[in-house]
Amino acid sequence: MMATPQPMGEIPTGADPQLAEVQAQIKSLRTRIERAGMKPATLDKKLSKMEGSDWLNIQIIARDESLDLSQIKICEFDKSLSDVTLTAKVKHVMPLICFTRDDGTEGTNRKFIVKDETGETMIVIWDPPKDFKLPTTGEVLKITHGYIRENRRTNGTSVLEFHANGETSQIITVDDALQEVNVNSSFVTIQEIVANGDMQDIKVKGTVTYISETKHFTDSEMKTVVITDDGVHKIPIQFWNGNIPKTIVTGAILEADYCFTANWDKKKVLRVSSFSSIKLT
């Protein structure tokens, strides 16, 4: 009995996951070569005269036509991508992180949350140059020679990030770009948080009604602060380790962004992440 033919471009049920990855990469290459200036009909005509994989042939065509495939959008991230360029607007700047490598040398990195018209991601600059100018919220950066890396958030979810080496990448400020991209975050009400399921990247504001003693565990410590934004609905916010505020009092107004929900003793709580910023007034 003959097998039912599969429509072109679709992946049969139970297909090798590697096939799905290759087809996703081909789709990304098509998008990028078209963005670089080649019409879809022209590309298809050239591909029809070539043998072998479209994945390789599109790159050959781009090389022969001097078309730049390095420009990507956030929605096109794939962990196989390297030597790519991203242009995005800065939404949030994190403090400088210092660390010691396994070989004993010192290193630093800078992290920014950025957006383009297709999505939001984290940029990580490893060992930024000493004269690196810290960007501000709303500034548009173009970063070359980056690569996509899969990372795990504090809440356990896997995300794709844009990483770059401060010595080999160019970091350029771009004027008059991505003007339509809004990087202002709006507050989520506590009533919304309580009523919905798992949430992340939450920005919340409320009055502090309770502050716990710091709890000490084997290798960590935690303080809980309860806030309300309407005098009725309340939610605990957990601060762990280095994120615990040094000075906080009942009645203070607390703002925290990039929080995520979690369950603690069968109750919903908010937790601040490693790149949350906390403001007390």
Low-confidence blocks of residues: 1-13
How much helicity do the residues have? 10-25%
CATH superfamily of the largest domain: Nucleic acid-binding proteins
The helix-and-strand class reads alpha+beta
Tell me the number of strands.
15
- Strand/helix succession: HHHEEEEEEEEHEEEEEEE
Total discrete domains:
3
In whole angstroms, the N-to-C terminal distance is: 74 Å
Radius of gyration: 23 Å
Side by side, the strands of the main sheet go: 2-4-5-7-6
Q: What's the CATH class of the largest domain, please?
A: Mainly Beta
Average pLDDT works out at 88
The description of the largest β-sheet is:
5 strands, mixed, barrel
Net shape:
elongated
Beta-strand percentage?
35-45%
By DSSP (H or I, 4+ residues per run), the number of helices equals: 4
CATH topology assignment of the largest domain: OB fold (Dihydrolipoamide Acetyltransferase, E2P)
Structural features:
281 residues, alpha+beta, OB fold (Dihydrolipoamide Acetyltransferase, E2P), 3 domains, 5-stranded mixed β-barrel, 5-stranded mixed barrel, 4 helices, 15 strands, 16% helix, elongated, disordered N terminus
